[in-house]
Specification:
Largest sheet: 3 strands, antiparallel
Oligomer: single chain
Strand content: 5-15%
Shape: globular
CATH class: Mainly Alpha
Distance between the termini: 31 Å
Helix content: 55-70%
Order of helices and strands: HHEHHEEHHH
Strand order of the largest sheet: 1-3-2
CATH topology: Arc Repressor Mutant, subunit A
Number of helices: 7
Length: 148
């Protein structure tokens, strides 16, 4: 399509971007998680880490980072804070001191029961029907998989 002076800049109009509504929606959803997660003493990103550990158990920092799309520079200080909170331990195995193994503590495992109420509190955060939410999740999963 040939660009005329009228549509030359359409490609950089905010209303024509997919990135902005994704950013704004994600930011607002994370903000809405703040209140239920405060009771658990977790930030949203810490909650994501805990969900992975509750589901899959202990793993290396690298494996954890791959699952939640965080690099070591972002993940390491987050895990350090979680260790100080008593939710996880970080251990370097003697067999491979370059790897850092992350495990839940008993306190971190016990937090799982309290966390089961968070999804219920978040129902209705997005004003979409169940079918729309399912479709949105499927599309976002597909987009994320295409980025790996």
């Amino acid at each position: 399509m040939e660009r005329t002076e009228n549509n030359r800049y359409d490609c950089i109009r905010l209303e024509n971007q997919i990135c902005f509504p994704l950013y704004a929606c994600a930011k607002e959803v994370v903000r809405q998680y703040r209140k239920p997660l405060e009771r658990l003493g977790l930030t949203y990103t810490q909650y994501v880490v805990m969900m992975v550990l509750w589901e899959f158990g202990g793993m290396t920092e690298g494996e954890l980072g791959k699952r939640i799309f965080l690099d070591s520079g972002t993940l390491a200080p987050l895990l350090k804070r979680m260790e100080k909170q008593g939710y996880i331990t970080r251990v370097r195995p003697e067999t491979n001191e370059r790897k850092l193994f992350v495990e839940l503590t008993a306190e971190g495992e016990a937090l799982k029961e309290q966390a089961t109420g968070v999804p219920c509190e978040m129902e209705g955060a997005l004003k979409l029907g169940q079918d729309e939410l399912k479709q949105l999740k499927e599309l976002l999963d597909k987009a994320v998989m295409g980025m790996e």
